[in-house]
Amino acid sequence: MQTRYATALFLAGLFASAPLAAQISGTITDDNATDSFIVAVPPLATPTDVSTPAGQTGELGRRVADIISNDLNATDVFTPKGPAGLRGTTMADVTAPAFSEWASMNAENLVHGYVRNNDDGTLTIGCYLFDVGLKSEMVRQGFVVQPRDWRRAAHKCADAIYARLSGESPFFDSRIAYIAETGPKGNRVKRLAIMDSDGANHRFITNGQSIALTPRFSPDYKSIVYVSYIERRARVYVYDVVSGRQRLVTESPNQTFSPRWSPDGKTILYSMVVGGNADLYTVPAQGGTPTRLTNSPAIETGGSYSPDGTRIAFESDRSGKQQVYVMNADGSDQQRISFGGGSNATPEWSPRGNLIAFTKITGGAFRIGVMSPAGNGEKLLTNNWQDESPTWSPNGRVIQFFRTQKGSGKASVMQVDVTGAKERRIETPVDGSDPAWGPILP
Amino acid sequence: MNNKIASLMMAASLIAVAGCAKKETPQDLPPPPVGAEGPTGPAEPVGPAAGSQADFIAKISSDRIFFDTDKSDVDSEDQATLASQAAWLKNYPEVRITVEGHADERGTRDYNIALGARRANSAKNALAALGIDAARISTVSYGKERPEALGSTEADWARNRRAVTVTVQ
Fold it and tell me: Do β-strands A37-40 and A109-117 pair in parallel, antiparallel, or remain unpaired?
């Protein structure tokens, strides 16, 4: 009862400014998915089925539809159907959909499109969205990409559909930095790795000789800030994705950890241990003199900027247990906001600004929750033995986190809609932890 | 029982067993630990090299102290352990040490790093109070990244909430 109430309140706020809010009647709750859009996503057409470096265009039509359908299934907004179980489409369908056929399977919206091989070696992926009931076109976009980037075109199409129907910003065409884990529990090999938001296009960055932890993409995707135990000293490094070189964020004999970018990418927020005491500091991203933000004998760590860069959420155990606090970006006006019981840690400010995601530790469970920046409206999204470290999709709609298994210690990257629905595991080549979602790709 | 002593003893017992079973070929045996006493040579006792990590482990009561959940204070039992370490360190004033702080798995990653740092620093301060020059002691926290006990029970977690002193060779 209480959960439903909180969900209803939350979504009312979420869609208040959405242009198509009227199309979402009532509330969306976990057990009432009938309010979501039923979208048919049949395989895309191709004018001529030819071979490309990415595969046959006909087969690509099915795979693009797979990606669109999988993307749309990330949130409670959509109930995608297909491409499995749906008939193939032709170029004639793309311009003149068989609306009555799709209406008969209760689809409210319909995705069509095509994959075409161009003479210059590129691919054009056409992306169309229709309102089945009104028999009208809602989205028409084309993406010309190199064959190796065909998945990006599929994400762009899903983003266009998502944005048009939900009224929210897109988020599928984005990347994740995370830690790939292998080896025994007592001596885990932890490597920095990156992948697309759906786990595809995976790439290892570090070789695993030193422990790597807690990466974050810079807003321009050119750098990753993370912790490395190189030379058995744990410190924050800035890794340059293009050159493959890295440098210390600050020259110090002290241990540094928990790094984050400011939204404009000009400042790095981190924690440093001096005399056993962890406090929050900032330093210019290009190097310079650190500024100390907190000054307490307690542990202060887990900083996260508000999207406008003026405020910082962080955790402190100054009350005796980990709790979430907010302060101005210069360290002034520190105020505790979490009073919902248990310990509350790892705050992560939504890019939308309206929520802070966090880890709640209570009753022997670590759970992902959200609350307002004032500490109101707490809602727990997951319930497992150990879920921690939420990270937001670039539009503030979906949260990834990692889940650790009791006993084995094996970790997985997980995802959940901010409503608490659509929990899923993100497939990674090996175990994964510490996901960090980057912004929408340029 | 700490790990390094355990592995030394394991190696020693393997070699001892092999000494009885004459058909074993030496190639099948793990190499003897550097500086470890050979089990078949009691006539020529060769202890660990003076001032080495093996010597440190052999002479002190323990290389580690343990903490309660979310705590970093040093109790009287810990104090006795650290006193044995300090006594050895006074004999080898050129030896530097690193205190490694650890936490159990039941904490968030960053907090556990901070907590491990607190624990390492508590051990460092106690050693300094026992007369060891703080400049000889560095600290590093591994948080929950390097558990010693691999299960998920209270007993496992108690073994993992630790600060371990390691000589820098």
Answer: parallel
